[in-house]
Amino acid sequence: MPLTLSTYLANGRADVATLIGELAAAAQELAGLVSRGAVSAEPVGETANGGGDVQKALDVAADRIFSKAARQAPVAFYGSEEQDGAVALNANGTLALAIDPLDGSSNIETNVSIGTIFSILPLTVDGSDVFCQPGNRQLAAGYFIYGPQLLLVVSLGQGTQVFCHNPDTGEFLQTIERMQIPEKAKEFSVNASNRRYWQEPVLRYIEDCEAGTDGPRGRNFNMRWVASAVADAYRIFLRGGIYLYPGDRRDGYADGRIRLVYEANPIAFLAEQAGGAGTNGQQRLLDIVPEKLHQRTPIVFGSREEVMEMGRYFAKA
Ligand SMILES: O=P(O)(O)OC[C@H]1O[C@](O)(COP(=O)(O)O)[C@@H](O)[C@@H]1O
Ligand SMILES: [Mg+2]
Ligand SMILES: [Mg+2]
């Protein structure tokens, strides 16, 4: 009989277990909205969020659902992509929750997988900004995927586990125990339409991958780009591969697009816990001390060997 999420969580900290339990219930609610699409009762429309991105109705609904979940758990501070700053919640809370309530927003109407990414941090002892702690302080991290299956990829710092939601019972059941990202990559994920804006090391790395058996890498690479980091990450975690969202020369993209605190850090934590790696091209993501909640970072994650190989292109530059 597969392990249930609640049984698994019972082995860890009680506050973290309560929070992840609430997040899992919220994810089921959001999955219901996602599956109803245009026939749901939710309003449609677009505004701008704190990060300057277009905010869709489902971004707003997701933020509402997950902030409610956080309120029902011992969360003292809630930091969301969809809010300008950190929000103080429960005075007696012991945790901080950083969240991308809806990842892959550009895919909402296209019926492609989207998700929710979360990072759980301890409170700081000196009262400094709780969301400016490096990712290596995360107590837990994970992401939900709203796709053909509702999946949870989660780590409490003892390996990365996968749970699948069973709609018949409402339970999340473990489908992968201590997942291991294959060491060798045969696929890269990058938005190649930005090629003309890339820095030299990124350009040379991708060109060498594309050269396949004729080039210095001596083997062929496939390319995939879902434009939902959760879906690209899950495929890479399963099959091996590398994801890059580097800084580029477009206005506002010097540090790429991905947010350090609630996208890059949780994904890097999960990748490392699954034997993979996550860097900004030159430095381990989890060691970067964030300066603000919505800070962007270049990101490279996936199969350890490949992430290190990519880093050598930066080191040589
Ligand atoms: O549209 P682009 O530039 O290819 O960027 C796609 C990337 O941006 C993201 O959608 C950012 O997430 P949001 O949808 O939460 O802003 C990633 O999930 C994805 O990998
Ligand atoms: Mg996102
Ligand atoms: Mg988002």
UniProtKB/TrEMBL annotation:
Every Fructose-1-6-bisphosphatase class I N-terminal domain range: 11-175
InterPro entries: FBPase_C_dom, FBPase_class-1, FBPase_N, FBPtase, Fructose_bisphosphatase_AS
Cofactor (UniProt): Mg(2+)
Keywords: Carbohydrate metabolism, Cytoplasm, Hydrolase, Magnesium, Metal-binding
Locations listed in the record: Cytoplasm
EC number(s) reported in the record: 3.1.3.11
Pathway participation: Carbohydrate biosynthesis; Calvin cycle
Gene3D superfamilies given in the database record: 3.40.190.80, Fructose-1,6-Bisphosphatase, subunit A, domain 1
GO cellular component term, pick one: cytosol
Enzyme class (EC, first level): hydrolase
Pfam families reported for this sequence: FBPase, FBPase_C
Cofactor annotation comment: Binds 2 magnesium ions per subunit.
Swiss-Prot/TrEMBL catalytic activity: beta-D-fructose 1,6-bisphosphate + H2O = beta-D-fructose 6-phosphate + phosphate
Binding positions for Mg(2+) 2 per the UniProt entry: D100, D103, E263
Protein known as: Fructose-1,6-bisphosphatase class 1
Native organism: Aureimonas fodinaquatilis
Gene that encodes the chain: fbp
